[in-house]
């Protein structure tokens, strides 16, 4: 491939866009500097590496920027491409953290970040650059599919994911163009680099809007949970406990009221800490209390007992509901969690229980 200096004003425009990208990164970091949410640290790293990759594309297209170290040109593009890909996945892990993303997808995404970083380091010592490009190409395709599947799995319940999909289009598109170019399936054209750099500001804008929507989603979720806790406390009207006073009768009555009358076990977002806050006791005291009067190992098992009973009722009365819908209405996070609790507490799966109720449905 021939490296040329190209038009002076065109090069100046590319440099201006890269400097503008760095300025936007610093501006976003300044705006969100006081937040404790780790997603903003990830977004900073993501944008930094995306911009650095842009610098590398610029340097790779114009050889006069690296006159003394031509070997560095071969290592740098794929190295930064791997790092940019790792930062992108890390950002998506943090971005999707408030959603009901399944544990399997969380584990796969987090494990993918570690694998990509290892590949980035190892790729620097591989002399066969064509092999490195092929490894990156297949890694990029695998990561893109994994991120898209993870995002689409929660797109209905997590509204900020809908806008972040728009951000993936130029990123995945530019990556595919680069891969096709390195695999000699697409002829080199310097305007591909220009198009990539021109898309950077639009990517930043979409990410900023998505982050704002995510922040609103988290705040609404937190306020809704706080309101539910306060409302339950007012309904129970619990007095402040005196030191040394026997709390067992009032706790048992309050817990029975919450689970049998208010039926708050149907809310999968309320944790043991939330229940303890409603009852105005420590989470460890709640666990100890449940173990004493129910002979169950933990509070979670005690709550799941009510959820399994609700699932049994729905299996008897609502034949039209799917397993995932029954799990959601019973208070389980997912159908997998329902099956696990069902098997533990009843000795059979929900399908086996339904078959026992309706043997003619075979």
From TrEMBL:
The chain crosses the membrane at residues 12-32, 39-62, 74-95, 107-127, 133-152, 164-185, 191-211. One of its GO terms (molecular function) is DNA-binding transcription factor activity. PROSITE patterns: HTH_ARAC_FAMILY_2 (PS01124). Keywords: DNA-binding, Membrane, Transcription, Transcription regulation, Transmembrane, Transmembrane helix. Residues 261-356 form the HTH araC/xylS-type domain. SMART domains: HTH_ARAC. This is 7TM diverse intracellular signaling. It comes from Leptospira interrogans str. 2006001854. The lineage of its organism: Bacteria, Pseudomonadati, Spirochaetota, Spirochaetia, Leptospirales.
């Amino acid at each position: 491939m021939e490296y040329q200096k190209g038009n002076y004003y065109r090069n100046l425009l590319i440099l201006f866009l890269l400097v503008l990208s760095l300025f936007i990164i610093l501006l976003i970091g300044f705006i969100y500097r006081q937040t404790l949410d780790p997603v903003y640290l990830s977004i900073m790293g993501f944008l930094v590496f995306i911009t650095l990759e842009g610098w590398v594309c610029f340097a790779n297209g114009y050889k006069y920027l690296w006159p003394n170290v031509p070997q560095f040109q071969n290592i740098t593009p794929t190295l930064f491409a791997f790092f940019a890909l790792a930062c992108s996945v890390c950002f998506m892990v943090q971005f999707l953290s408030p959603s009901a993303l399944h544990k399997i997808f969380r584990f796969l995404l987090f494990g993918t970040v570690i694998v990509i970083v290892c590949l980035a380091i190892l790729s620097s010592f591989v002399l066969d650059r064509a092999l490195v490009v092929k490894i990156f190409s297949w890694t990029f395709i695998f990561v893109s599919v994994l991120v898209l599947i993870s995002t689409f799995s929660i797109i209905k319940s997590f509204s900020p994911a809908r806008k972040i999909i728009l951000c993936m289009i130029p990123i995945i598109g530019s990556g595919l163009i680069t891969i096709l170019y390195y695999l000699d399936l697409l002829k080199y054209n310097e305007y591909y680099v220009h198009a990539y750099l021109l898309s950077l500001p639009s990517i930043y804008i979409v990410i900023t809007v998505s982050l704002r929507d995510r922040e609103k989603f988290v705040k609404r979720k937190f306020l809704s949970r706080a309101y539910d806790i306060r409302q339950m406390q007012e309904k129970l009207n619990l007095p402040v406990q005196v030191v040394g006073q026997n709390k067992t009768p009032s706790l048992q009555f309050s817990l029975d009221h919450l689970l049998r009358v208010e039926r708050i076990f149907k809310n999968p977002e309320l944790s043991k800490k939330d229940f303890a806050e409603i009852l105005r006791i420590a989470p460890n005291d709640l666990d100890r209390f449940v173990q004493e009067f129910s002979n169950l190992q933990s509070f979670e098992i005690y709550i799941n007992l009510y959820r399994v009973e609700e699932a049994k009722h729905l299996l008897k009365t609502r034949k039209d509901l799917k397993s995932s819908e029954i799990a959601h209405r019973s208070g389980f996070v997912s159908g997998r969690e329902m099956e696990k609790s069902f098997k533990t507490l009843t000795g059979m799966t929900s399908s086996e229980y339904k078959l026992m109720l309706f043997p003619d449905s075979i």
